[in-house]
Design goal:
- The chain has 385 residues and is of the alpha+beta class.
- It has two domains: 127 residues; 152 residues, Distorted Sandwich (Glucose Permease (Domain IIA)), CATH 2.70.70.10.
Length: 385
């Protein structure tokens, strides 16, 4: 019996080693990447199709989308420039402190060099010979000569240190000037980008006014909401179809997080799940009023499966948490994550905005299970009073 078991165990161990070999792991990663690319391509194709339909039906909405996307790009660039400016200011302050220290060091070394040169001058060129001839005890000759050599070396070291300090000051000065030039350039870019943003936001406001004039009637508004809801459902259906086989490793499954999830943003709920949105439509998530540009956070670990603009929802991000659970974040000012990125619970993923046609800043948040919207109240932690 034992002689039969040994080959079976050996074969099992060989298969196990093969399954966890670098080649197998690399192959699994490649497969995962291919699935992700297929998802991106299908979403992109669907987006183009939806945009073509939208452009035919409503040119103003298309213009609004383009304006909001452009404004978001400018805001993202402004955020990057602001980080660069802060970083350069920090570097400049450090360099200035170093320069002050080096100048002080130079002054101290200059005094030391002056004293040593004065002492060397007084000693004179023939002082060693005078010392030798005046020695009464010849045994002291070696000691005196050694002392004199030490004095020469010490003075030489003082001069070398002084020169090194001067060189360091010159290098520091060059670096300082270069950093100041970079800072000036970034500040100019920031001013130009801010002006462009103001122009885009002004244009957006004009478009919103025209759109609102067009949609005065309830029937027109209902038609718009149904169209936008239908587009979101198409996106969700496409995601559900494609992410089924994408693995989401997690020690804490989403299904076990009921009542434990953090809030996606600090704010006040203006519309709750199930509230009437129009005569025949209800809200399928929460609209949370929040301060513009405040951070939007992922409610749980997962992978971003959608990061783009969608009519009526603006800049939107969807995270797959595995086992059919999705979380959705819409109307953002900018998106900080792209499709395929992994995110941790509580990680910043976007900034609160009003894209998609809102008149004030807010976050629209949904949780979906197997494609169906579910009430976030059951899943998020009770809000601290």
């Amino acid at each position: 019996m034992r002689c039969h078991a040994t080959p079976v165990i050996a074969a099992f161990l060989a298969l196990l080693a093969l399954a966890f070999s670098p080649v197998a792991i690399t192959g699994a990663k490649d497969q995962e990447q291919k699935k992700l690319e297929a998802l991106k391509n299908e979403i992109s194709s669907l987006q183009k199709q939806l945009r073509r339909t939208n452009d035919e039906r409503d040119d103003l909405a298309a213009q609004l989308r383009d304006t909001e996307i452009k404004a978001a790009d400018i805001q993202k660039n402004l955020r990057k420039l602001n980080q660069q400016i802060n970083s350069l200011n920090t570097e400049l302050n450090t360099l200035k402190e170093q320069q002050e220290g080096l100048v002080l060091k130079k002054q101290q070394q200059a005094q030391l060099v002056g004293r040593e040169l004065n002492a060397a001058y007084r000693l004179g060129r023939h002082e060693p010979l005078k010392l030798l001839f005046n020695l009464e005890n010849p045994d002291n000759i070696s000691r005196i000569m050694k002392y004199y050599e030490y004095m020469v070396e010490a003075r030489s070291a003082i001069l070398v240190n002084y020169k090194n300090t001067l060189d360091e000051i010159a290098r520091n000065e060059t670096t300082l000037l270069n950093k100041q030039a970079l800072l000036k350039d970034d500040q100019l870019k920031f001013t130009v980008a801010s002006s462009e943003l103001e122009k885009e936001l002004h244009e957006r406001q004009g478009l919103l006014s025209k759109i609102n004039e067009q949609r005065q009637s309830d029937s027109s508004r209902l038609k718009k909401l149904k169209l936008e809801r239908g587009q979101l459902e198409k996106i969700i259906a496409t995601l559900e179809r494609n992410i089924r086989h994408l693995s989401i490793p997690s020690d804490t499954p989403f299904s076990k997080q009921k009542g434990k999830l953090p809030w996606p943003v600090k704010g006040r709920i203006s519309y709750r799940f199930g509230a009437t949105r129009n005569t025949t439509l209800k809200w399928t998530g929460w609209l949370i009023d929040a301060k513009e540009a405040s951070p939007v956070k992922a409610v749980h670990h997962g992978r971003v499966v959608f990061s783009d603009y969608l009519r009526g929802h603006g800049l939107m991000l969807i995270i797959d948490h595995g086992r059919g659970y999705l979380s959705l974040y819409a109307h953002n000012q900018i998106l900080l994550k792209e499709t395929g990125d992994w995110v941790a619970s509580g990680e910043d993923i976007a900034r609160v905005g009003n894209t998609g046609g809102l008149t004030s800043s807010a976050l629209y948040f949904e949780i979906r299970s197997q494609g169906k919207a579910i009430d976030p109240k059951r899943w998020l932690k009770p809000k601290a009073s």
